[in-house]
Task: inverse folding
């Protein structure tokens, strides 16, 4: 990678990115009151929920009122409303379709994909606009080349490059001419997702990854948490990853070069973290469910949306100087399960599989039959080039699971290629129904 | 705050010398094709005039099936938004049927662009999905997908990159048009091979290069638009 000292760590919007907490609080007080006035009476589902809860916009004067009085919104409520009324945005719509520039979707991992409506600003997608702070902070500059072919799911990623003065190259890692393009243009940024990280592992068998990727200032990684072993591989390849994710489906959040949590831009959203059992606010550092509210989406805003994301957050300023909240995603609420009294999460299974060379890419699925299960069934992807003795591999994987969880697992061994090919969403679905 | 100032901050940054780097599929392989800002403007303007012929306007949804590694969806998407419409996006793979279905059921598009052969086969294999696609007023598919869709009773017209250019059917004629102000096309005698030349103003230049897309150059199109037109089927 390009050396850190050669990069600038300056900020695109220092006054916003380093805004003192008191000013962010005051901003949220204003924006939440404004959102209440915007959504109530326009967004049919929100209006109905608020009516049922006896809430009126005049009741909302800031964060305290909002958190105490506004009812939760769930993905199921949105889907149910959409199906019942054939309302594309599930009763969140505040504007007519004529206001729209783009409508993109979630991955649809857990059911019908839901829509994200966008009104572009002077022709630029706000989704990618929100990512420019992070990439500018990571040193991406005018004239740099960026590979933008990883996905079109959230609209034109070329906007991200063009907004930064960089040049988009329309291709991704799996393109047959990837190596040729990297050699010719020496790009500074691209994004990998879980799938393409595994592809990179394959690539490392035939090329010197460290040399090929030496031109990249940073590489984005998104889609799901990265396993420990894979992260160590990237470090060995001298690749600096900038992990990014969704901030409660209202915006994007990115790591900065401190790599100490992902910054959630609080001018674009209001975020709460609540105890899963009690619903009480969780102090910084505690684990809870992320609840998100859009502050920059006048088309179809989410208000107190239960993301089902388990996170840890802090509002302490980062060493980089930015003050906005940082999150560490820990998994999905629905991924929690108990097997013979033992709590099991995909990340625990992942850590176990990483200790076995043939399964260290972390390609697996837990087959879930209920929240409480008697048996743990795991579909495990293995590297066909490395595995010669499947019976022996099964025994070693079983031992690794036992060492980590003290559970005997039913293992279905398939090649990583087969397991990846079974995805219908572009993500490795870690927990699947039986 | 709230992304408004973010855009202002971005617009103060130096602009890149190129709008992007795309691809040109030539008969002897794929080559990188840099796109200048003036190229991108000309491409979007031409697409805008073509799509206006479909009556695409405020509030109209245009859905794109793309791999994410192509330039033409950006060209057409820019045109759609400039006409007041909005874009949706799905992948080009066969398994994108789920997302396609969600769009078709809840946000019926006025036009679908870029259905691939693989995705068309999935559509043809599902009576429910085929019925939904059949309701879309304008289905523009890659040439290999057109007969697959026809087999399911869906009328589609052919859209395709032709080297660095895009061949886009008009709404009311019978050809797939190429922007004559930027490109010229010719037929290699006695074959379905097509050559493309670029205007001298384009960042990426070709002179009579044979492209991988095959078709027949038409003497004209019933719509009367200027510039070359192709039959890609």
Result:
């Amino acid at each position: 990678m390009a050396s850190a000292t050669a990069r600038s760590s300056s900020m695109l919007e220092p006054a916003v990115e380093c805004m003192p907490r008191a000013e962010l609080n005051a901003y949220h007080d204003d924006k939440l009151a404004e959102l209440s006035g915007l959504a109530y009476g326009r967004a049919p589902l929100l209006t109905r929920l608020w009516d049922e809860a006896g809430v009126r916009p005049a009741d909302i004067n800031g964060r305290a009122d909002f958190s105490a009085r506004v009812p939760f919104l769930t993905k199921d409520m949105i889907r149910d409303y959409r199906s019942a009324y054939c309302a594309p945005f599930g009763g969140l719509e505040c504007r007519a379709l004529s206001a729209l520039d783009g409508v993109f979707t979630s991955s649809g991992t857990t059911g019908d994909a839901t829509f994200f409506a966008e009104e572009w600003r002077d022709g630029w997608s706000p989704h990618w606009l929100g990512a420019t702070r992070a990439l500018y902070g990571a040193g991406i500059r005018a004239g740099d080349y960026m590979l933008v072919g990883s996905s079109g799911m959230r609209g034109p990623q070329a906007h991200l490059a063009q907004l930064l003065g960089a040049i988009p190259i329309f291709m991704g890692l799996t393109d047959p001419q990837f190596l040729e393009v990297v050699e010719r243009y020496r790009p500074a940024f691209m994004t990998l997702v879980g799938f393409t990280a595994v592809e990179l592992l394959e690539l490392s068998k035939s090329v010197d990854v460290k040399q090929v990727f030496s031109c990249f200032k940073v590489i984005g990684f998104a889609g799901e948490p990265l396993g420990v072993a894979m992260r160590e591989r990237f470090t060995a390849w001298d690749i600096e990853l900038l992990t990014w994710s969704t901030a409660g489906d209202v915006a994007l959040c990115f790591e900065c070069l401190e790599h100490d949590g992902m910054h959630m831009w609080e001018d674009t959203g209001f975020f709460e973290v609540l105890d899963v059992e009690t619903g009480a606010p969780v102090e910084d550092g505690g684990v809870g469910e992320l609840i998100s509210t859009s502050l920059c989406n006048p088309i179809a805003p989410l208000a107190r949306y239960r993301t089902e994301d388990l996170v840890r957050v802090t509002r302490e300023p980062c060493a980089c100087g930015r003050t906005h909240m940082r999150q560490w995603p820990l998994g999905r609420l629905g991924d929690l399960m108990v097997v013979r009294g033992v709590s099991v999460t995909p990340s625990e299974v992942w850590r176990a599989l990483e200790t076995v060379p043939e399964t260290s890419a972390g390609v697996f699925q837990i087959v879930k039959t209920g929240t409480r299960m008697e048996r743990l069934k795991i579909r495990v992807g293995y590297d066909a080039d490395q595995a010669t003795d499947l019976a022996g591999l099964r025994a070693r994987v079983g031992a690794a699971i036992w060492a980590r969880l003290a559970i005997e697992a039913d293992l279905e061994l398939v090649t990583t290629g087969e397991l990846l090919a079974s995805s219908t969403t572009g993500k490795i679905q870690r927990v699947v129904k039986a | 705050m709230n992304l408004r100032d973010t855009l202002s901050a971005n617009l103060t940054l130096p602009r890149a010398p190129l709008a992007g780097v795309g691809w040109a599929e030539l008969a002897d392989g794929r080559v990188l094709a840099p796109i200048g800002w003036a190229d991108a403007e000309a491409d979007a303007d031409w697409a805008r005039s073509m799509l206006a012929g479909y009556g695409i306007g405020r509030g109209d949804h245009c859905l794109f099936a793309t791999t994410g590694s192509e330039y033409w969806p950006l060209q057409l998407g820019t045109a759609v938004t400039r006409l007041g419409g909005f874009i949706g996006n799905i992948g080009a793979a066969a398994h994108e049927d789920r997302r396609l279905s969600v769009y078709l059921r809840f946000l019926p598009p006025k036009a679908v662009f870029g259905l691939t052969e693989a995705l068309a086969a999935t559509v043809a294999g599902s009576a429910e999905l085929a019925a939904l696609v059949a309701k879309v007023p304008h289905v523009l598919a890659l040439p290999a997908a057109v007969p697959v869709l026809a087999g399911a009773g869906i009328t589609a017209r052919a859209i395709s990159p032709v080297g660095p250019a895009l061949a886009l059917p008009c709404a009311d004629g019978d050809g797939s048009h190429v922007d004559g102000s930027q490109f010229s096309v010719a037929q290699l005698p006695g074959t379905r091979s097509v050559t493309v030349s670029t205007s001298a103003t384009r960042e990426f230049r070709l002179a009579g290069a044979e492209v991988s897309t095959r078709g027949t150059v038409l003497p004209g199109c019933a719509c009367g638009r200027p510039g070359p037109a192709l039959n890609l089927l």
Chain B has a mean pLDDT of 96. Chain B touches chain A through 53 residues (CB under 8 Å). The radius of gyration of chain B is 18 Å. Residues 37-52 of chain B form the longest helix (16 residues).
